């Protein structure tokens, strides 16, 4: 009985290893066809999805290249715990790692592409035991100038950036104008509060009384003394009248 169980387990393991039985499949996603201008850098995007947790110690990424013309397949890049750029060949010192295995990203960057880089790039990711699945392919086309669609996208990007800058400048200018007007209004409102009264000035009602009092003041031209008509002694007026009568009597004599 035990021998039969071991035999069945061995058969199942062999079938799984040969790919007859379905196992957790690795799904890889690429950007498809990519155009790049001669002499520029290009990013070959490759992402993956594994049905088991990512193990950074066992996960591997392999990139290979097959030219459009007849030629042998060449290794481009390898990753296992750390990047391994090609030590020689067509892509020596031309490839850098741009991925993040924990973020399920296995992208690379090819620097200063040449026309000899035209071809198909294959991305393969293994996360044991999730090691089977379709390969991701990218067809790179190196051109002399950018296509119309790329130029249009570039124009939109530049125009959008300029539009955002203009909007920001308008907002900043508007805020400054608003603050300046607000300060001016506050200054106008605070000005009457800070106004100080002249101690030598008097209220209009008091000025009328002063003017009336001055009109009652009489100035004696004979001795230069100032007398108030409203405060004269009645007896003095009678005496002056008697003196006038005596003078009249004398004259009549």
Automatic annotation (TrEMBL):
Q: What region holds the Ig-like domain?
A: 22-141
Note the topology in the membrane: Single-pass type I membrane protein
Composition bias, Basic and acidic residues: 184-200
Pfam annotation, one family:
V-set
One Gene Ontology BP term is: cell-cell adhesion
List the subcellular locations: Membrane
**What is the protein named?**
Ig-like domain-containing protein
